[in-house]
Amino acid sequence: xxxxxxxxxxxxxxxxxxxxxxxAAPLAAVTPAQAAxxxxxxxxxxxxxxxxxxxxxxNAAQVQAFLNGKVPRCTIGDPGRAPGTPIYGSTxxxxxxxxxxxxxxxxxxxxxxxxxxxxVGESAAQIIAKVGKACGISPKVLLVMLEKEQTLVSDxxxxxxxxxxxxxxxxxxxxxxxxxxxxxxxxxxFNQVYWGAWQLKKYRISGPFNFVPGKTNTIQWNPNAGxxxxxxxxxxxxxxxxYIYTPYRPNQxxxxxxxxxxxxxxxxxxxxxxxxxxxxxxxxxxxxxxxGGILSYWQAxxxxxxxxxxxxxxxxxxxxxxxxxxxxxxxxxxxxxxxxGMTRTSPLFIAYGNAGGPAGSWGWPIAPGVNQGGSGNxxxxxxxxxxxxxxxxxxFLVPEALRVVWEQSGGFNGxxxxxxxxxxxxxxxxxxxxxxxxxxxxxxxxxxxVVDARFLTAWRALGGLSAAAGVPVGxxxxxxxxxxxxxxxxxxxxxxxxxxxxxxxxAGRYRNAYDATGGVGGTFGWPIGPMQxxxxxxxxxxxFQFGVGLWSGASGLVKVSPKAYTAWKPSAAKLGYPKAPxxxxxxxxxxxxxxxxxxxxxxxxxxxxFVLPDGKLRDGYLAAGGPTGAWGWPKxxxxxxxxxxxxxxxxxxxxxxxxxxxxxxxxxxxxxxPKQRISGGDRFETAVEASKAGYxxxxxxxxxxNGLDYPDALSAGALGAxxxxxxxxxxxxxxxxxxxxxxxxxxxxRIVVVGGTGAVSDGVVTELKKLAGRVDxxxxxxxxxxxxxxxxxxxxxxxxxxAFLATGTGFADALAAGAAAGVVNAPVLLVPGNASSxxxxxxxxxxxLGVTQVRIAGGTGAVSTGVQNSVAAGRSVVRYAGVDRxxxxxxxxxxxxxxGAGVDVYWANGLGFADALAGGAVAGSRxxxxxxxxxxxxxxxxFDATGRVVGNxxxxxxxxxxxxxxxxxxxxxxx
Length: 975
Hints:
Keywords: Signal
Structural class: alpha+beta
Protein name: Cell wall binding repeat protein
InterPro entries: Bact_Sporulation_Assoc, Cell_wall-bd_2, LGFP
Radius of gyration: 61 Å
Largest sheet: 4 strands, antiparallel
Pfam families: CW_binding_2, LGFP
Signal peptide: 1-35
């Protein structure tokens, strides 16, 4: 217990008289000896290192509270104790230690103590706490030393000298009678506390000194050498330091005396240190030993670590080390590395435990954690790398293979930032880890490096660490070729950055082939898009500045255009890879390229790029002349049925279709077929224009028919086709001037008038005789007989194996039949369509002609079944029956004209006869069909029939009032 005030005063005075820091006056000098002996005092371990060197044992507030408790009331100022009052060679101080303040000077860090920042008006408590922390000496030890040396802690009216030599520093017992011989250069409370702590720490840091821990030392009992010496095995530095500071060991008499006096050979300094410490703060030893590097770390961090809760535990895992549990955390001391600790509740500690602790994949921590990037963000070195605790993100290990590069980048606050996840390993053994602002990779080929920021997004899009091309293995290199760019080597490829973007080429034959073309400076230029592989077999494709590079093991690297690549890709598996570069075909507007692939071609023109696989369709196209032939360039993709029995494709001139049953069929696209209008101011002039178009020079024979009525003239078209004679129109009683002029131009030798005088008068015949050497009339009593007469005029007996039958009560079917009949050299015979049988004159004519096949124009509504049956005996019959007159004309054309014939096609209005009457004779003579259409659009069947046979042009019979712009444009009627 602390002595009473008078005793403390006398003891202090005795300390001043006898000496400071050596013997220290026993309390028995002024009071009766206390009977209770000192217990627990161990001369070889007076105080544990872990307690003695704990600079954080008390903060300033705790020291102040302690001082307040030791001196509840400072008596300075009481009667006889005024400050400055002389007493025992000194004067009364201005304040007790609890109230003491002074300005301190800053001290730079040195080998013994850390820096001490000076301040104005610091309290004694602040000085004690700050010095203890800076020099690593427990403030508890400093308080005990202040009491032991000068009773400053408990004195309620100390003197100035007590403050000046407070710690007994620089006060050797070299004065008279072993009295203190203090150096005034070290006077002052701050000087004494700082240098006293510095000295106590110095004993441990540098030497040699008289007393050494870990061995047996010879220690005197008393300054009087005659009292003899003792042998003490000093266990630690703290105990050695106390002996160096006070070089005497209390003998048994001093121990037995407790706080009192022993014998003449007793010394009391170290005994009193022990008594003050244990009475004020408890044991000088910890419940569990703390030593070595753990001790140093604990002393620097015991504010959060607290007291040890277990003894150190050794481990041989990962090179070995020790761990020790404390109330607030764990301290790790590896054999190689610095001690460090973690709080039990920190995310870093939890993650470390999940990783297996010191025996796990992280190994031992080898340096204390460092706060980076703000509160809650910690970076801590482990054997296997640095572990980063990013607040709100997680705890991740930056493996040793990546750590140096990461630290060189600036670490947590650097250019790459903190990790977002743990590292991963690729199948090639490369290591990689994603960070906030980048990725770091490491491989045996390229070492560790930050992925260049310019390539990072593209590289991650390729798969990052799992990318087939691997991780970067070198620095980017620039090139000025083909506009300039940057190349970036990877484990198994190269990344390219050009104005067009980034991509990767996998190493091996593809890149070798690309390099063989000159690489970025060659004909392909820079890659401008990602490489795609396994498109068909082992092949790959990459878009370049100047085309797409298609590669396979069999074909090598061949350039295709971007359009060709787009067309190729959906059919890659069937078409295969290109066998050669594209070849130019055609010129001007008809120019394009053809590129041969393993199983087909790609045709590219201004219409686009289209695939045409090998097969009947392609064979037919090539037979038609290919792109420069009748079909022109493809303008749509080839489509085939799932079973392969039908394929079709659109071309510039139409659509080709192949079927397994019907073979190849080509239907012209009528919009693209040139059209020519044959027309005049009226029907007479239109007939003249048709004559001029068919017979630009002369004609040996000219046919004349009534332009205002059709019956007698319906069969004339077939006769005109046979004779190669134009059919011109007249009025019943007059000859139009335009018709006269055309006859004059043609200079015929013969004119044949079709029909009786009711159709064309004798007056007109008389006028015609002035224009030709011979004029004949061909007629019968009715239209049916007239048709027989025409047949007899044109076809001698037995010269016609075929004949057409058409109704005489309508003109449409007969007009279409007339042109077709001219193609097959057959007459057209008219019948009453609704009759039960054909007229006898007609059946007789069929027999005369030798007809073996009868072709009927129209359905049973036009020519009855009875008529058909009456002419069928011994003959074959073919009926062309459409849903309407237009469809019938189409069916007749399809039945007579071979598909792909490439002939001119004549269109005429199906609701008028005059234009078709004259045009049909010309059409038949030229082997061309006459097809009937509406005035504003082309019926679908007529459209298709035209496309099936049309060659270079379509001729429209009649002006815009008969066939308008829709027909001229080839517009198909909507069904």
